[in-house]
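Lab notes, practical 5.
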Amino acid sequence: MKKYNEAKKIIDSLQDIPYGYNDNMKSNMYQVIAEIECELGNLEKAMNFINESIEIGEKLNYEIIRSEALRIRGKINFKAGNQKEAEEDYSAALEHATKKDYYEVQASILESWAQSDIINNKYDEAINKLVKALEISEKNKCVLISRNIYKQLYLSNKEINKYKEALVYYEKYAEINNELDCITSELSLADLENEKNKQEAAIFKSLYDDIKVISTIGQKITSDFNFENILENIHKEISMIIDAEVVGVSTLKESEGILDYALFIDRGNKMNLKNVHIEDETSIGAYCVRNRSTILINDLYKEYKKYVPTLKVKVSDDNTQSAMYCPLILEDKVRGFLNVQSYKKNTYTENDLNKLKILASYVAIALENSCLYNRTKYFSSHDFLTGLLSRMEIFEKGEKIFKDCQRERKKLAVIMIDIDDFKLINDKYGHSYGDGVLKMVGGIIENNVKNHGIAGRYGGEEFLVILQGISERKIYSICDNIRTSMERANIYYGEKFKLKVTSSLGIFMYSGKEKSIDQCISFADEALYIAKAEGKNKLVKYENYS
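Output from the prediction step:
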């Protein structure tokens, strides 16, 4: 917001310059002012200026003025709550931009339009527009627009839990950012050399060389999705550019307010440090995260009180004397901190801190990539809604268990579970409420089955459980606990109305004659059918009903 206020002052001063503007210049000026006023929340002023720009565009018959002005008016109308008008403006803007093949403007319009969809939680529509915008910007080498679009595609896919797609888009976004950073560094270096300022050029060259090394390290760190490998690479590579006798990486578990030391290596020895609460007044790392600030210490005894009143460890010559802390920040969220320490005083400089800052940005990206990768991997084998195994995964695992029980002659039970009258729940109370019921049922099944077998979502409101190596009595006990737990569960619709949810279960006990897990599931399904037909909310064991 401060930047927009500063920009407004500059524009205001330009309007006072005592020479005339032609209509084209005026139109561009009005568009800039309108966009600034819109960001500052002065929507009426913004609308007046943009309408002036549109009038000039009509008068000059310039499609580029019309298309850009209508894009901005779409933003203003959206901010003002005029959804219909905003849609019309974006649509008209795109039409004008398409007439003359203004590709960059087309991509920009689609990006702005998608932003409105994102705010309205219309993620699928936003993604469709962003993909179209990306095709245009990539084809026409609009690098800055592509970078922004990749970022929005990453955030949108992440928001709707499409972690695989989010990861792909995030990598492209990070790749373009790295390329732009290198180009900026090269241009700056060339400028210094052209000015023949040898002293500054030498300093910059040194920094530039460091950046290239850091960039190489960063690419190594971010190219691996395995969390343990990432931590190992951080420790191995960081000493190439910084004197680091101690290296620490802590990740923030936001829901618990806990900082977890994922990595802490002291002079080559891995240490298991206890978690630290983010509000801990004795932890410099917690201070770093709370305040989102970098910290440089060159004499621990003299400087620690700037950050904490006391330390957990007694300050002595045996402790580390110098330290640097950098928060790990990604998409404006703190994810933890990166820390290096030395047993010598006065080890670190501001230049070292700058290097650590750049490294911290790579570490934050690497940890996010790992998180996205692990989620993608997890949800490729688990049902997103309930957290139980997916249909495909439980079939695969079930077949392995079946073969093991067949070979070892172990007991095996296959249970099909169905939520009674679930369609009525969905129809009467809505799908979001139905989803809540499915989550609850998934939790009940998981709590009863763990340590005895596996459970998965078979499809819709049906669940599949496979138990092995336990007595028939225990199997019945587990099944009845699932049924009664559901029956007793407190499921409220609104504040007062309590909904009763029941389930039917079909149980099949492996006899040693069955040829596959599919056959066992089929028999359990037959038993389930009988349970439903006999009044629901009951267990039925498969008998040879034929």
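Observations recorded by the TA: The chain has three domains: 1-187, 222-373, 382-541. The CA atoms of residues 472 and 509 lie 8 Å apart.
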